[in-house]
Amino acid sequence: MRLTVLGCWAPFPAPGGATSSYLLETEKATILIDAGSGAVANLLKWGQPEKLDAVVLSHWHEDHTADLPILRYLVRSLFFTGKRTEKVKLFYPESPERPDMSKYQEFFELIPIKEGEFLDIKELKGWAVTNSHQALSYGFKFTNGVKTFGYTGDTGYLPKHAEFFYGVDLLLAECTGFKKDSSYTQNNHLTTEECALLAKNAKAKNLAVTHFWPFYDVLMLLDEVREIYPGAFAVREGMSIV
Ligand SMILES: [Zn+2]
Ligand SMILES: [Zn+2]
């Protein structure tokens, strides 16, 4: 199982960067988790879009979905050039923020996400958990039967997440604010302290942090995370984690 970071910023990218997007690959399955601004260019750089089995969207905020219409153009081009004949499965939250999905039907199989097991593609299984966020948002857990990967999506701190992500090999957690920002992030995003506590309580084997505000120093955020979860690391575009 390999995770490649296509975008790690929010809600806008750092210069040359991209917002939330991650490519998860196993021997047989390839899925794109979120499709923020700049995701498609990085998918072409570090992934193989013709192999894409599914796109999974955590929620409809634009820093996670801005490139979905651009991805549609790419998938349509793959169909036109005969590079793919199968629709891409598109898993999405059925919430008021979602756009008109009819234009996606031609090249995507539309599948609303439900809490619990929602994805079963080749050897990859996925589960969703409801988050605390301004929009309906999900966290995900995926396994190929060997390794388990968890992604928080955008969320405030919820104790149930420690249970949902219990024992994952890698937890990719949003880390939007410093400890001092908790009055701003509450119920919507995780601070350094909260994402570290989540990983610690979930006994996650590794913690990767993401969803950085470009005006913050990522290494300073990481210092705070490591006070609670010493082995944590910060992701960047192009990073591949096996
Ligand atoms: Zn959001
Ligand atoms: Zn976000």
UniProtKB/TrEMBL annotation:
What the entry lists under InterPro entries is as follows: Metallo-B-lactamas, RibonucZ/Hydroxyglut_hydro
All copies of the Metallo-beta-lactamase domain together span 18-189
One matching Pfam family: Lactamase_B_2
PANTHER family xrefs: METALLO-HYDROLASE YHFI-RELATED, ZINC PHOSPHODIESTERASE ELAC PROTEIN 1
List the protein's name.
Ribonuclease BN (tRNA processing enzyme)
